Amino acid sequence: MNEQQQRWGILYCPKKGFANQRKRWAKIEEYLNKNDIVFDFIQSENSNSVERLVKMMINNGYKTIVIVGGDSALNDAVNSLMQTEKSVREDVVLGVIPNGIMNDFARFWQLRENDIEYAIETLKKRRVRKIDLGKIKYKNPKGEPCHRYFLNCVNIGLVAAIMNLRRQTRKMLGSRMLSFIFSFILLLFQRLEYRMHLKINAEEVKRKVMTVCIGNAQGYGQTPNAVPYNGLLDVSVVYHPEVMQLIEGIYLFARGKFLNHRNVYPFRAVEVKVVEAQKALVGIDGRLMANPPKGEFTISVEQEIINFIIPG
Fold first, then answer.
1. 3-state class of 307 per DSSP?
2. Rounded to an integer, what distance in angstroms lies between the CA atom of residue 208 and that of residue 246?
3. Longest dimension (CA), the chain
4. Is the pTM of this model over 0.85?
5. How far apart are CA 198 and CA 209, in angstroms?
6. Which residues make beta-bridge pairs with 282?
């Protein structure tokens, strides 16, 4: 590689509404320099600028692009990368330093927001693995065919709303656990079930459902056995529990034993077709879709499609 190709392109996505973001970047920069990393740095103006800035980095020849951000920023980055030709994409490696409202994909790889030094040491070792992406194909409100990729999961129904609430409450409360608990309290004031028609493998689910999670990775605890390198999607379908069962579900969710709940029905599939999801919200990697699908939509997986730096 020439010098330009050896340089890292670093996209810093500060957390909106959080104080001390300049101090955080100063700390990250200190560890980068300590590890003799040669890099160029860009700060995103807002969440809508990530895809554009990643595309700019790719066009300028950066082969290592590090996102200092959370799940939403990573989602934008992979969608920008997937717009390039395969020959270009094959030469680009993505990495992450967790710095988002939600960092569940980084947590899957044992990367923690409060351990910047470990994240940078991991990136420097450059252990690259090809990972899967989920893909949702749908039509927008104008009836135009669209698609979007995801690293973590697609949520349909109640938890899509909860993840959105969790994002908002995390900004207010700061604590990951407090935002989680407060969001679940707020769910009591939300619509609790939706009429759905799903086709999963050879099975059909046609009934009222509280929430569905289709995970390429751990799906914020709802698909805890999913991994982004086996070419499969894990699916959790949750029927509407009684109040005491709901409390039990919250407890099991917090303990990482979500699949043990009696109202959770797990599947594993290559493709899921959503024929109907009556007025249900849809979230991708923890963020609500700006233009929700019109009519039926399909969720599938593309195996070993991007290069990602993992610990090891």
1. strand
2. 16
3. 62
4. yes
5. 10
6. 156
